[in-house]
Specification:
The protein has 654 residues and is of the alpha+beta class. It contains 17 helices and 21 strands.
């Protein structure tokens, strides 16, 4: 039968003799003129033959009233002389009568009607094309010779003109139908291209990653309402859109989306089920200039797709990939600016204080705020690098805890000197952590605090949700930890220098200037206080007899006795040489005398070589009209002078 309108157009276009009008906007008159001018060539015959057969069958019904044309057998032959249809047989391969092939061939050659009369009469009339007047078919009429009449030739010739009209009417019908379908197809393509152009404009106008992904999904839904789709993203981007999902690459190389991602090209598969239309699954990579960022997966019925759709889907995916890359770069640049500002502000705040406890607490609160974490612990390595101590934490159960250098995640970063990120603690069995178990956390970031290639501490940051921290969080955490480590090192160094400045190197007691400052501060807030000045008797003779090393040893022994004989709130200092001073806040001189006696008696018993000490005591209270640090020391020094003049190894109060 007749080819469908699109196949006929496509098939006929493959042969260069018959060409359809190129302009869809041609008028009907133009098309009619074009049809009248067309030539039917032999190369088009496989596609023309069904039209001839259908027209012949219709023509037989039209000439049914012509009795003279029904006395024998009517048949139609192709341009090569092969019979293709007859009124007496359903099969051209089994004709009702033997035909005079010489008559048919003569008509094909001369293009003129021909008659041969023998026992059988054969009349053959050519069907000529309109323009070139080429023979593309022959109608033959065979009947007994005795009934033949000469008028039958003219009758058949006129009837054949009717047959040709039937043929060209069908031919025109196919052309017009095909032209209308082409116009509809062009309209659909134009609409899709317009929609695609608008989609591309909107996508390129987005600078937010989520907006780009949402626009792609909405556009696909608009173009193909019945399609099911997913967007698989290979990065750790999180989206609230239910159609955006992570692309899992683990051991699934046969997966359509993974193959499209790995190969960087569109892959399609068709699948059909009983009583259902054929489905096509399409996976298109979202590619940018720097790589592939994900895969667009679409599944819909095959009959809804045309060749243009595959091109548009591919172009849409490429556009989305470029827009995604641009939005990601824009987002990363903004993030980088925010991070630099954050680092600058954090460093400024950290350097405003040199008190170690303040640095630890500030760093803890800032890290919890920046990363929206739930728990944080900052640990510091002790001076001998034998254990970690929790210096600051919002987990009360482990506050001030001490851990060995091979325990937990702090021990792991200490051993490797490398940071780590853990997506799910419950799926990780290699390391046990009290910090993670006490908080019931699943996500973790841990970094070592490294100064001069030495680990001095560690920071643990956690959340109870799995997969909570992103790779960007992890990178920022490493940068911030470097500045926090430097701030802790500076505060520790400052504390060490301050301690060295406020303490006597030999004895470990406070220096004189520190004692002066503290007594002055105490006098502003306390109501009374006492000062003991201690002097080692005959210390010069000890140095001369035993040497300065023994003298230093005795001095340290006496200082240790003083340190162990006073309260934590009392302040002991080296006054100068072998003279030592002890300030006792809120104690009267009678109470101070008992402390002095305890020191004197212990020194006499516990020192080796044995020495004795002399003491002088002074006091102040609010009732005094004028009191100063210098006056307090002067009175104690005068009392000490009396002790020495009265035989030494004694205590004198002012």
């Amino acid at each position: 039968m007749i080819h469908n309108l699109r196949n006929a157009q496509v098939e006929l276009k493959q042969h260069h003799t018959v060409q359809w009008p190129t302009s869809p906007s041609s008028t009907y008159d133009d098309n009619e003129l074009w049809l009248q001018q067309q030539d039917i060539a032999s190369s088009d015959y496989p596609y023309i033959e069904p039209l001839i057969i259908a027209s012949f069958q219709e023509w037989l019904g039209v000439i049914s009233d012509f009795r003279k044309l029904h006395l024998g057998v009517l048949a139609v032959f192709d341009y090569q002389g092969k019979m293709i249809a007859s009124n007496r047989s359903d099969s051209p391969e089994e004709p009702a009568a033997a035909w005079n092939e010489q008559v048919v061939q003569a008509v094909i050659t001369t293009k003129e009607p021909t008659v041969a009369v023998y026992t059988q009469a054969t009349i053959a009339v050519p069907i000529l094309s309109r323009k070139g007047q080429e023979v593309f078919a022959v109608v033959a009429y065979q009947l007994p010779g005795h009934v033949y009449e000469s008028s039958m030739l003219d009758l058949l010739s006129m009837a054949v003109l009717t047959l040709r009209n039937h043929f060209y009417r069908r031919f025109e019908h196919i052309f017009i139908s095909d032209l209308m379908q082409l116009q509809n197809y062009s309209d659909r393509e134009a609409r899709k291209k317009t929609v695609f152009f608008n989609v591309v404009q909107r996508i390129h106008g987005k600078f937010d990653v989520d907006s780009v992904l949402s626009e792609v999904i909405e556009s696909i839904s608009f173009l193909y309402p019945s399609a099911s789709m997913e967007l698989y993203i290979s990065s750790d981007h999180r989206s609230a859109n239910e159609h955006v999902k992570p692309l899992i690459l683990h051991n699934f190389t046969d997966d359509l989306c993974v193959r499209a991602f790995m190969e960087g090209r569109m892959i399609q598969e068709t699948s059909s089920q009983e009583s259902e239309n054929e489905q096509v699954n399409i996976a298109v990579p979202l590619s940018g200039k720097q790589g592939v960022y994900g895969v667009l997966f679409i599944s819909l019925e095959m009959h809804l797709l045309e060749d243009l759709d595959f091109q548009l889907i591919t172009m849409l995916a490429d556009t989305a990939g470029t827009a995604f890359e641009n939005a990601k770069l824009y987002e990363q640049s903004n993030m980088l600016i925010r991070e630099l500002r954050l680092i600058n502000e954090l460093t400024k705040q950290l350097n405003q204080s040199l008190r170690l406890s303040e640095v630890f607490d500030f760093a803890l609160n800032e890290l919890l705020h920046i990363f929206k974490a739930e728990y944080c612990s900052i640990l510091q390595l002790d001076g001998e690098k034998s254990f970690f101590k929790v210096m600051s934490s919002n987990v009360d159960e482990i506050s001030k805890q001490i851990y060995s250098t091979d325990y937990g995640f702090s021990g792991l970063v200490y051993a490797t000197k490398e940071p780590l990120i853990l997506l799910d603690y419950k799926m990780f069995s290699k390391v046990r952590s009290e910090f993670m178990e006490e908080t019931d956390s699943r996500s973790l970031m841990a970094v070592p605090l490294v100064i001069n290639n030495e680990v001095n501490g560690a920071i643990l940051l956690s959340h109870r949700d799995a997969n909570y921290f992103s790779y960007d969080n992890f990178k920022l955490f490493q940068v911030l930890s470097t500045h926090i480590g430097l701030a802790i090192a500076n505060a520790s160094l400052h504390a060490k220098v301050q301690r060295m400045a406020n303490h006597d190197n030999l004895t470990g007691l406070y220096a004189r200037h520190y004692l002066d400052d503290r007594v002055h501060q105490k006098q502003k807030i306390d109501f009374c206080g006492s000062l003991i000045v201690v002097d080692i008797d005959y210390f010069k003779q000890i140095n001369d007899t035993y040497g300065h090393q023994i003298g230093d040893k005795i001095l340290r022994q006496v200082c240790e006795i003083i340190r162990s004989s006073i309260r934590d709130s009392d302040i002991a200092a080296r006054w100068g040489g072998e003279e030592l001073a002890i300030y006792l806040p809120q104690l009267s001189k009678s109470q101070a005398s008992r402390v002095a006696e305890r020191i004197r008696s212990r020194v006499e018993i516990e020192t080796n070589p044995g020495v004795t000490v002399s003491c002088g005591i002074s006091e102040w209270n609010w009732d005094d009209d004028k009191i100063s640090v210098e006056l307090l020391f002067y009175k104690a020094d005068m009392a000490l002078y009396k002790s020495k003049n009265n035989g030494r190894n004694r205590i004198t109060m002012d």
